[in-house]
Structure formats: structure tokens, C-alpha cells
Amino acid sequence: MLYPRKLKQGDRVAVVSPSGGLPEVFPIPFDHGLRRLRDEFGLVTVETPTTRRMGATPEERAADITAAFADPSVQAIVAAIGGDDQITVIPHLDDEVIRRNPKPFFGYSDNTNLLAHLWRLGIVSYHGGSVMVQFGRGGAMHPITKASLRAAFFTSGPFELTESPEYGDVEQDWEDPEFVNGAPLMSECGGWIWHNADRVVEGATWGGNLEILHWMLAADRDIAAPEAYAGMVLIVETSEEMPSATEVFRMLRNLGERGILGRFAAVVCGRAKAWSFENGNGPEEKARYAREQREAILRALAVYAPEALVVFDVDFGHTDPQVVIPYGGLMRVDGPARKITVVY
Predict the structure, then answer these.
(1) Which part of the chain is the LD-carboxypeptidase C-terminal domain (predicted)?
(2) Model's pTM, two decimal places?
């Protein structure tokens, strides 16, 4: 696996919308995120033709991604946001161009498609950091998110992940002009939850959003032979669509029946997002949803990977704050010390 070179102040960063041009619909958080990239990270942002255009075809979006990799003046690529149809974009990428011009790519959620594709091409990418959510957060960026993104952008070597004493999953109104000044609602939370934590596992990461992995499995898209995952660390998290515990179990069971789930030496699970505009759960409902999801994951692992080291409630998914995970890069999960270290 190749780690692309790191950024420096003044570098140009292409902002792409691989899953759809939501910046056209919600310009407030998008423009706020662009300002942060420029003012707080010292980077020059470059938009592609489809970045702010809803309805762009998969071919057009793929052309923008390929062009961003090919452009010698661009040093990194950041997704504006996720979506739900990036799986239709991946076949139209020019893999030879991407191989010849490896660059760090940042995104999560539906961008799991591109993260996994880059892994198949031998390029380390980064799970996390979309313009409209992490950079475009109302109020100030969360300090844990900001520190992780800064380290992933500009530094190499080990970075120890931080347990957050608070988290948020209540979404802000992106159409409210006062959005940029209002901090999101945060709640106290417990620390990471460990299972089979009597060992240390060090390996490359693979995974991402569980629902997208399930779609990729159905389409047989960027899924390797089971032996390719031996000794790796599976990272999984769920989205604002809030799949039921039953569905989470079934999706993992399918990975198990494919012969993949049992190959992982460790499984690191993102904190469950348990609120959306459609499901405005209160504290008790949130706690129940998260607990049932943990139980479903352990039930699947008991069948297919009973010896795996497991950590729950790590902040790398759809909740706030969000730490960046190198995708295909190294992660050390130290059970006795209760520490997780990644290599950026």
C-alpha cells in the first residue's frame, strides 16, 4: 500500500461531489466548509464542474474525479458530501490515471465506494472529513475532529486516537442563515467499549459504512478474495438511515458467509448515529438503539470471528466529533492499554 505524499500550506485541494451535487441545494454549510479549508488549514480549494451540480451523470462525476487525480496542480481531493449512488460512478474511473497520480482522498459514508476502490489500486486513502459536515460544522470545528484532520493532512507517522467525553448526532438546519454561528447539540458519553481486549492487533484497515459495504457485496464491486483480509482491522459504522439491529446482523452475516468476516483480527465500530429528522429519538431511545446494534454485531462475530478483538463507540462515522482513519493504512489496537493508534 502506498501512502500519497502529505500536504503543505498553500497546496491546492480539489473538492468533488462523487455522489451528487448537494452543494447546489445546501450552499451554506458548503461555503462555510470551504472557508475553513482556506482560513484554518491554509489550503486553496478548487471546485470541479459537477461539485455544485445536481443531476450530473455517473460518467460526468467520474470524469471530475479522474481529472482531479490527473491535475498536477492538485495535491489532495476532498469529498463535499456523501449520498447513495456512488456505486454507479466507480466503473467509469480511469484506474491507470489514478495509479500514476496517487493523491490523498478524504471522504466517508457513500464515499466508502471510492475508498475501497483506491485500496484495490494499492493507494491509502482517508475515511473522514467531508466539506459540508466536518469542515462545515456550525460554530467552531470540534477540536478532536480538527486535530485529527490536521494530522492526516500534514503529518506522517503514528497518531493516537482520542476518546471524546461528548458526542452529537442531532443534525442542524442547513437552510438556516444562522447555521454557521450555532454550535450543534452535544451530549455526554462514555468511553470506548472493549471485547476480547487481552491482546494487541496491528494491521491494515478496510471497511467503512456498513450499508455501502453491503451494496458493494451485492454488486461484487471492489470485494477481494477472503484471504486478502487476513489479519486486517475491519472498521464499520452505520449512517443516518439507522438500520435496525436485525439488518446490521444480517449484513455482517453476509460478510461471514462470503468468508470475509472471519479473516479480520480486530473489528473497530463507530459510534451509532441514533437521531435523524425522520427519527428524532430521545436519550433513552438512542441508548437502546446503540445497545441493540452492539449486541447484533457481537452476535454475528460470535459465529464468524469469535476471537476478534472488538472496540465499540469510536468516533469515526456519522457522529460528531469524527476522527480520520487511514483506509488501507496501519492501525494498532492495543487491548491491554486501551489505546488505538493509526499511521497517517
Answers:
(1) 202-332
(2) 0.98
